[in-house]
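Weekly modeling sync, notes
Attendees: S.R. (lead), two postdocs, one rotation student

Agenda item 3: backlog of single-chain predictions. S.R. asked that every request posted to the team notebook include the full sequence so nobody has to chase files. The rotation student volunteered to paste the first one in as an example of the format we agreed on. Action items at the bottom.

Example entry:
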Amino acid sequence: MDYQSAITALADPTRRIIIDRLRGGALPVAAIAKDMDVSRPAVSQHLRVLSDAGLLTVTPSGNRRLYAIAPEGVDELRRYLDTLWDDALTAFARAAEEKAKGKTK
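Predicted structure, as returned to the notebook:
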């Protein structure tokens, strides 16, 4: 998947909570859904969106599935965000140089 799908998936606050819960490692739906304000079926739908966006891996384990953060999906998103950061730093350096030139004249 691409970074745009990841950004769209992460726009939902419930999905960000799910990602935060998975930061410690793989979990089944029941553990992810525990104490959430949405139903277990709703959590499953959110997991599907995150999986479709390439942000999660799903591993069958007996009669349940374990969900974990997909390093490849997160890496693609990180690379995109790094380009934004690089652009911002370049613009800042350019602005600082222009300001410095203006003061030295």
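Discussion: group reviewed the output briefly. DSSP finds five helices and three strands in the chain.
Action items: rotation student to repeat for the remaining queue; S.R. to check formatting next week.
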